[in-house]
Amino acid sequence: MKFLIKNMTLLIFTDIDGTFINNDTFDEGFNTETVSQLEQAQHLVVFNTSKTFDEVDYFQKRIKTSLSFICETGGGIYLADDHFKITESSRGTYQVLYESEKINEYKDQIQSEINKNYRDDLTFFDDLSVDEQASLSGLSGHDLELASRRDFSILIKWKSTKSKYDEFKLFLKQFKLNLITGGRFSHICSEHDKGKATKLFIDKTKKFFNSSSIVTVGIGDSKNDFEMLNEVDFPCIVKSPNNHLLQNSLNGKNITFSDHEAPNGWVECIEKVITKIKSSEIANV
């Protein structure tokens, strides 16, 4: 499929687990080649994930990409050097666009308060044995170590009821913290999310391009992608067991669905969106 669209740049935000790669096999299929084709057509792809900085950095080295990315559910935004020159701060080979409050600034206090009130309702990921962490995350060895190096979020495994979960969410608000539901875990973090990070990235990008030429796309599969998908022109959902919670949240939006799970569902979403755009007045074709 030809990805070039006259007078238009797609800014594509994509989750990784269950979206760009398969949630069980971690296979990315031919998605890396598709990213190269999109870049050649002057489009931008940005990873937007709950993975840590080190996980995304290692993942990109493995699949031989160098994309800007948002990590830890909006906690950090890092720009590939060849995209924009807007900040003096750097981390590795990336420019730092934004970093949230670090967990070491509130972790001890919040863990103490949680243990007083919700000890039987949840388990901290860091308190699990290595075998338990591997079983729940599907990761092991070096991959598990990278996933544990969290800067902006605390992972928990919720064990109690939905009503108690909602109560816990309100409890965290007292400390100006969010509780975000992910595919395998929930994330305690500062008041950031994938949507706020997406909006900031879009705003910065439009300063470097003709804003009318930017069309935004979001691709995800689970509930913690909701905020990201709510900020874009074309939200896409890759088929997954986690879809029902996300789909219910996005009722009323013009959603593109894939018929296949990741990794093939990711390319399918891209192709469906481009077909929609090219067949509409917006593409001027």
Question: Could you walk me through the main structural features you see in this protein, from its secondary elements to its overall organization?
Answer:
With 285 residues, the chain is of the alpha/beta class. It has 10 helices and 13 strands. Strands 5-6-4-3-2-1-11-12-13 form a 9-stranded mixed β-sheet, sandwiched between helices. Strands 7-8-10-9 form a 4-stranded antiparallel β-sheet. Strand 12, helix 9 and strand 13 form a beta-alpha-beta unit. The longest helix has 15 residues. The chain is globular. The model has no long low-confidence stretch (mean pLDDT 92).
Largest sheet composition: 9 strands, mixed
Mean pLDDT: 92
- Share in helix: 25-40%
Q: H/E series, N to C?
A: EHEHEEEEHEHHEHEEHEHEHEH
Q: What amount of the residues lies in strands?
A: 15-25%
Secondary-structure-based class equals alpha/beta
Unreliable spans: none
What's the helix count?
A: 10
Strand order of the largest sheet: 5-6-4-3-2-1-11-12-13
C-alpha-based Rg, rounded:
19 Å
Based on the model shown, name its key terms:
10 helices, 285 residues, four-stranded antiparallel beta sheet, 23% strand, alpha/beta, nine-stranded mixed beta sheet, globular, 13 strands
Write the layout of secondary structure elements.
Layout: E1 9-14, H1 31-40, E2 44-48, H2 53-63, E3 69-71, E4 76-80, E5 90-91, E6 94-99, H3 107-117, E7 122-124, H4 130-137, H5 141-148, E8 153-158, H6 162-173, E9 177-181, E10 186-190, H7 194-206, E11 214-220, H8 226-229, E12 234-239, H9 243-249, E13 256-261, H10 264-278
Parallel strand pairs: 1-2, 1-11, 2-3, 11-12, 12-13
Antiparallel strand pairs: 3-4, 4-6, 5-6, 7-8, 8-10, 9-10
